[in-house]
């Protein structure tokens, strides 16, 4: 009797390896490089925790391959309920090829904390203009020096909480849509934030992840915790 089935790994040209000779995942030196498979638009939204965390995790992974990553952070301009020093900023400062800037206004928009709504809107508009500047510089940048300023181009641009800024009417959805549509072909663009589904962005995205809350310690009265939220 003849077995007509073919091993799937053989079809794909993958050599069989035993546990003894299989290479273990490892680390290597980080040198400037240009990605071959970037160029998608990602949207991370929902009322669950982890949108910013996931985006920064991808940023660290990309920077670990020598790709230039920059994050423009909207909305999170600081508040009296959290410390000014943030763990993620400390980590980014020590990591080659990853940089950030914060364009948020101090305080929480719409929460009657004494901060001015117009100033929140002005800061958000400034962040959008900054994102447009970096997009324009990121057309086919090739390998970028790991310590180069973002004005010399990026391979991945994270616009953290930009969708929340749209939810809060600090930015116009059409302006963000125009930004997405104008991105260079090879730039990986990551948009995060917001509890309301950003239909305008989802229509343009190659990856959409809805981060849904099931249980959160804040529901039980816990505040932001050092090391997990900042």
Structural write-up:
The structure is a single chain. The protein has 230 residues and is of the alpha/beta class. The chain has a single domain (38-212), classed as Rossmann fold (3-Layer(aba) Sandwich). Helices cover 28% and strands 13% of the residues. It contains seven helices and six strands. It has helices at residues 8-11, 51-64, 87-93, 117-137, 162-167, 173-181, 199-202, and strands at 41-45, 69-73, 98-102, 156-160, 188-192, 207-210. It has a six-stranded parallel sheet with strand order 3-2-4-5-1-6, with helices on both faces. β2 (69-73), α3 (87-93) and β3 form a beta-alpha-beta unit. The N and C termini lie far apart (64 Å). 31% of the residues are buried. InterPro entries: CblAdoTrfase_CobA, P-loop_NTPase. Pfam families: CobA_CobO_BtuR.
Relevant terms:
7 helices; 28% helix; 230 residues; six-stranded parallel β-sheet; Rossmann fold; alpha/beta
